[in-house]
Amino acid sequence: MSYPYTSYIITAVVLYLFSYIYYLKISHGLGNKATYLQMRRFIPCAILAVLPAALAGLPLSSPLFVIPTIAAILWIITYPTLYFISNHKVSSDFEFHFEAVLGLYFIAWISSLGIIIKQVSWLAIPATILITIAELIMLGTIDLLWPLQSLCQRKWYGNDSGNSL
């Protein structure tokens, strides 16, 4: 007997195990409290990542689920891996639970938005404009903050701040 939600449950468990085990392996100097807190925190995130697809009856092979999942996995892996490679010998402790949590939430947000746009077609253009504006603001803010921070640091500490443009 096959249950209709078996593939969604298995996918949620795989996302949970991937994000939690990766978090444990890449984080350095974790205490017991952080380990158990994140173990509990990743459970609702993994469930929420799969929930929109399950409620809409969307196959997990659909681009509305696959594309956000690939982007989220890249988000979860990229920065923590590069930081670990660069700093694991010099830093006594660091953890990357926010990357995993945001990555799992990203799957839910973007797949939900795709499902809503698919159901209510007149929302496609406003949603695309909204997402584009939000991404431009995010990119613009990040791109503007680095030079401004660097200029302020040079003003206060001189040219030998270790931060170059």
Brief overview, please?
The chain is mainly alpha-helical and 165 residues long. Helix content is 78%, strand content 0%. The chain is flat, with a radius of gyration of 20 Å.
How much is the radius of gyration in Å?
20 Å
Oligomer state equals single chain
Query: What structural class do helix, strand and pairing data support?
Result: mainly alpha
Number of helices: 5
β-sheet strand percentage: under 5%
List keywords for this structure.
single chain, 165 residues, mainly alpha, 5 helices
Description of the structure:
The chain is mainly α and 165 residues long. The protein is 78% helix and 0% strand. It contains 5 helices and no strands. It has helices at 6-26, 32-56, 63-87, 97-119, 124-157. Helix 1 packs antiparallel against helix 2, helix 1 (6-26) runs antiparallel to helix 4 (97-119) and helix 2 (32-56) runs parallel beside helix 4. It is flat, with a radius of gyration of 20 Å. The model has no long low-confidence stretch (mean pLDDT 79).
